[in-house]
Amino acid sequence: MSRCVIISACPVSASLASALRPGDTIIACDAGYRNCAPLHCRPDIIVGDFDTAPCPAQEGDDTIILPHVKDDTDTEYAAKLASEKSFDEALLLGVLGGRRLEHTLANLCTGLGLEQRGVRATLLDERSRITFVMPGETRRYPKDGYFYLSVFPMEGRAEGVSERGSFYELTDAVLTAGYPLGVSNEYAEGSDCITISTQKGALVVVETVPDGPILS
Questions:
Q1: Measured between alpha carbons, how far is 175 from 110 in angstroms, rounded to an integer?
Q2: What is the largest CA-CA distance in the chain?
């Protein structure tokens, strides 16, 4: 499986370096190239209009300078580039939080767009991992250090939603954007895996680490 890592400009810590794999192709978006230092990696490609950081010096043809007036965000352009290069997976770092909430929301849309184009997308920060379940799909979520699991209808409405292995299970449920039924679920007692499926409408799944020590 080929994977690219798209690094955007929200601050990241060195702890996320453990998410990188040998052989990853690193695509830095605009000021996101500054995040390569704490992640101990070097960008293979840099893309951006460089409105938030000066264009860095790179050897060869690995810097793509975008116009300031455009429809795509720098991260969206990188995602489309990842699709064109036929990567199987994309890990997005530096795309959550920061001072621009609208960019976090935009990056969720970018993740869904990757999935719709056949690229498995994961958005990651120090506390949360975000993935998608597409219509007709079933995905397994082993506990893997996370405690909370939330599910939202990414396209406004999802039908035929089922969750198994969670404290609050769902069977053939309907999730809508107007009511956050799927927020803050947990693993059922004795469960080390939650299974999620949807028949109609994409889901965004947010796994989050506990706020503090879990007392048993």
A1: 21
A2: 56
